[in-house]
Design goal:
The chain has 401 residues and is mainly alpha-helical. Helix content is 56%, strand content 5%. The chain has 2 domains: 2-296, Fido-like domain (Fic-like fold, Orthogonal Bundle), CATH 1.10.3290.10; 301-393, Winged helix-like DNA-binding domain superfamily/Winged helix DNA-binding domain (Arc Repressor Mutant, subunit A). It comes from Leucobacter exalbidus.
Length: 401
């Protein structure tokens, strides 16, 4: 049951720890100092079950979540009513921002090239994996269960690290403290034997209907990150789960609101909020997401306005008849700023020759530039859209005052 209490609310149950024996891998070469530090038991977290937990939130936290929820729904409605393909644009930018929280950075151009399997950047390919995870999270939002969460993580990593996909982890993981052992880690998630029951409990918590949607999603995200159920990809999968819950709760219906872009401006605060959650205070993680909603929406509105201005400029410099390929390609370029003639032909339903002629008119108008110097298999990009996407990323990284 959710309750508002203007007095000091009952504490959220903090994690405890339990000892586990550690067997050092004899094939790993370490210094004597490292070997001594890695001896004996290590302490792994023991998490409370939250499926049926009474949730007590103070009035200030609930008010902040309500304000952010109202703005989130408003942004989702206003952008969803625009005919331009901003749902695709915002999904990609949110995926890039979520990846950047994990220090996986890439330019908008490299990400777009990675979608064509033409990028030089390994990080760009990882961002494209995160786009797939976000798409899976939205598609699976009607039924959030263990299989759905595993599917989100599989979509994220099936190309870059398939060995970590398809199941919850079966080995210990830890955060910080080096790769030799968990003894010096800043946080050691629960032992892998506890993961299945904790994830079943989390899925039951996600199914509750007695909590405000944004607060509910933030708490589920924090519990997921504390369980750390996978060997890799937990942060990005956890933020995809947040969007799945926002869609499941009907707080968003049309677009992927750039919440991770809002987190980027204060990642230290975000990680401190997760630590507070583990120590028994759920309010900071809810407040962190409420603040992130406002920061991300402000940034998203600026991006939408810039892209609308770019499209209007193309209409002036490269006019075309209503319903023609020349009009349709403008919308395509907003969601796919790096193209080939075959992509244009397939997306617009025109011949390869017609697609090439349409591209060449935009090249002549300065809207498109050839990316490579091939005579065959040519690739073009729109510098204006890519610059707007990179400015979005730069704004997201600015620290809040």
């Amino acid at each position: 049951m959710s309750q508002v209490n203007s007095a000091q609310p009952p504490a959220w149950p903090a994690i405890t720890t339990e000892p586990h024996p550690w067997a050092r891998d004899p094939t790993v070469v370490t210094s004597r100092r490292q070997s001594l530090r890695a001896r004996g038991d290590y302490q792994a977290a023991v998490l409370p079950l939250i499926a049926d937990l009474d949730v007590h939130l103070d009035a200030e936290t609930l008010a902040a979540a309500d304000d952010a929820s109202a703005e989130l729904a408003r942004f989702d409605s206003e952008v969803g009513s625009i005919t331009a393909p901003f749902a695709s644009v915002l999904l990609r930018t949110e995926s890039a921002s979520s990846s950047e929280v994990e220090k996986l950075t890439s330019s908008a151009k490299q990400v777009a090239l990675a979608e064509l399997d033409a990028a030089k950047s390994g990080n760009a390919r990882l961002v494209v994996g995160n786009v797939r995870a976000m798409q899976a999270a939205l598609e699976l939002s009607e039924s959030i269960n263990e299989d759905a969460i595993i599917a989100m993580q599989r979509a994220l990593l099936y190309e870059s690290a398939p060995e970590y996909t398809g199941k919850f982890r079966e080995e210990p993981v830890w955060i910080g403290g080096g790769s030799i052992s968990p003894h010096a880690a800043s946080f050691v998630p629960p032992h892998n034997d506890r993961v299945p029951s904790l994830m079943a409990d989390l899925v039951q918590f996600c199914a509750r209907t007695d909590l405000p949607v944004l607060a509910h999603a933030a708490l589920a995200h924090a519990q997921f990150e504390t369980i750390h159920p996978f060997s890799d990809g937990n942060g990005r999968t956890g933020r995809a789960l947040l969007h799945s819950m926002l869609r499941h709760g009907r707080l968003t219906r049309n677009v992927t609101v750039p919440v991770s872009a809002g987190l980027l401006s204060d990642t230290d605060g975000y990680f401190r909020a997760l630590t507070s959650y583990r120590n028994g205070d759920p309010s900071p993680i809810i407040l962190a997401f409420a603040d992130a909603v406002f920061a991300g929406i402000n940034n998203g509105r600026t991006l939408v306005e810039e892209l609308q201005a770019i499209a209007a400029g193309w209409a002036n410099t490269a006019p075309a008849r209503r319903g023609s390929a020349g009009v349709a390609i403008r919308e395509l370029l907003l969601r796919q700023p790096v193209i080939t003639a075959q992509i244009v032909a397939d997306e617009l339903g025109v011949s390869f020759v017609s697609a090439t002629a349409t591209i060449e008119r935009l090249v002549a108008a300065g809207a498109l530039v050839q990316t490579n110097d091939y005579k065959r298999n040519r690739i073009w990009h729109t510098p204006e859209v890519l610059a707007a996407l990179d400015r979005f990323g730069a704004r997201a990284r600015r620290q809040r005052p």
